[in-house]
């Protein structure tokens, strides 16, 4: 996935359309004595964690949570600062006060973050650190500074087939997992990889095989369902790629059941206009993918990116870093791909309700301004949610994995 330029002139994030004004991006190594609070209760079995750009200030994370109602986000990206040391966007220290404070606020509300190393620009640490020990130390500095339980490795381009860095990274991760386990901590590893409509490239398969051989426990294989090249139906291609990945995963992990393998998958489209501009991932594609992920039990849904989850207010060169280039309302993709929102009838909502959020306070991020909210769903013993409407009436069953609230709007909405 692309790393956008760090220019104040292009900073028009999602939160701006929700009436929230952001400052210009942080620059330089803003080191501080801040430390992230311990991680919260952990991630649910199914969750949505879109990529949020760390070239923005840390407060953008707080504003994104308010605007979307989501609880989990993937920080994009931790890359080399020019040496064997990881920094947010390669320039901002992971101890930066703004980002540490934002992570702490998110965790205080029951959420959490995943740090993603790599991306489509910049340099992933395994390409810079010359030994397993130095690489392991660089990863550990980031993990400990942010108190992470999940790390993502977005490996693409030439890095996928760079066998030396692949081996070095996997050895470092295997050792880190063992060392954290000895201290009673679990380190979940995600691999985010480019994909074709029929599955991973041979080089990506070799990367995963190497990880297994060296003892890395992989929690998620996340595919970037974007930028195929030809003019394709992007929702169907995201599903086709997931089906192809399942067959490949079954050969890598033959000891796992089909259900377990689906539960190891992640799916990350680029919303709106892709880098191949003839490809457009629409809101209807998001509905299609969400239904599929819900049916199959896919663990992670994400998207690139939080800052693009809004329509372009002016004519822009596409693809743009700050808008999707497609018709949508602010945070449409976050709402459509949010796991708690998955339900049998995508267009259904209780009377006089304008949206579903993770907390009463998150209602404030929805437009038009709501007048409150009420708890409507709680998980049942079978993992599905029992629903008793507060905005409307009646009840239903769907696949919520956590309590949710509907936000009340003006009568007639």
Automatic annotation (TrEMBL):
Keywords, comma-separated and alphabetical: Glycosidase, Hydrolase, Signal
Gene Ontology molecular-function annotations: endochitinase activity
SUPFAM superfamilies listed in its UniProt record: (Trans)glycosidases
Catalytic activity, EC: 3.2.1.14
Signal peptide per UniProt: 1-23
CDD domains per UniProt: GH18_PF-ChiA-like
PANTHER family given in the database record: BIFUNCTIONAL CHITINASE/LYSOZYME-RELATED (PTHR42976), GH18 DOMAIN-CONTAINING PROTEIN-RELATED (PTHR42976:SF1)
Protein name: Chitinase
